[in-house]
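lol ok so funny story. i was supposed to be doing the assay writeup but got distracted and ended up predicting the structure for this chain instead. priorities right. anyway since i did it might as well share w the group, maybe its usefull for someone
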Amino acid sequence: MTETGTVREIKGNTAVIASDKSAACFGCMNLECKSGHLITAENPGTLPLETGQRVEVEASGTSLLHQAITAFLPPTLAFIAGFFITRRLFPEAGEAAAAFAGVILLFAAAFFVYKARGKSSHQDTKT
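and the output, tada:
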């Protein structure tokens, strides 16, 4: 994922960048950008950056994979756990009840992931 923005602050090898509104913001319907969403980006090549300079930042494939795993794996595992635990604890319950329990745990885990990720409002990217 590549975004453009303006350098707001430079701290050693790290730059704080205010991202421009882009197609990437459509995923959150611009809610993060409206709340002053900033991107924290590493500058591994120690490029000469200045405050106010327009830059392009890119998230590494590994970072994106890690974000996808942490976002989708817990709800998926919660659904599976809810389904099989219900089948184990209540053998007379049908598949619909087990699936319902799985969906409840899926949404609970998704909410937990959402809240946990919301506490960290910065993205780690490279310039």
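The CA atoms of residues 18 and 38 lie 5 Å apart. The chain has two domains: 2-58, 63-118.
back to the writeup now i swear
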